[in-house]
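INTERNAL TRANSFER SHEET
From: sequence group
To: structure group
Subject: Ribonuclease 3

Please process the attached sequence and return the structure record in the designated field. Keep the field labels unchanged so the import script can parse them.
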Amino acid sequence: MKTLEDKLANQFGIVFADKKLLETAFTHTSYANEHRLLNISHNERLEFLGDAVLQLIISRYLFLKYPHKAEGELSKMRSMIVREESLAGFSKNCGFDHYIKLGKGEERSGGRSRTTILGDLFEAFLGALFLDAGAEAVESFLNQIMIPLVEAGDYDRVMDYKTALQELLQVDGDILIDYQVVSETGPAHEKNFEVAVSANNDILSKGNGKSKKIAEQEAAKKALEKLQRGS
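Return from structure group:
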């Protein structure tokens, strides 16, 4: 953890008073489960807190930054900024993927690059930072790594894959497009949904996500890519 502490101090000016919080934020459930006798805490509770803090800070930023945008536009921008894929990208940009503690099985299966794990890690870090130094410290950190991308326009054009798929399929007339949950796995606090999208009862693709909406968008995205490849 010393290397991580040095990185945070040098790159972001962050120094944790409670180093246990930082360690917990970077401990995945798989690692804690493999070391149960040591009674190690994992980062799920911090993830829960960090998600709420992130939503609030980004909501406040967008509200003040774009006074003429309607609620629907602001909601779409926020959803793109805080979606799992975006947060995983921020984790990688910060180099957090190198420091997370994973169980051996999770490590072998590529967990260090898994979007879900990296997105959750980013939220857990924000939760830990909030507890250690308050909302201003979290906001300062986000101003360094997230807000510049927002102001560069990276989130102005919201991609709704479901709408794009519908427009592509129905260009020559109505087609029945349906989304069905194929499976629902994991504990209540960490569900994973698999959704299949079909056109006129023919399955086009499947997608996964932490919510039905995310899984539907992922399925639509894969279907679009498949159709655009002509396969």
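Handover comment: The longest helix spans residues 44-65. Residues 161-229 form a domain with the Double Stranded RNA Binding Domain fold (CATH 3.30.160.20).
Transfer complete.
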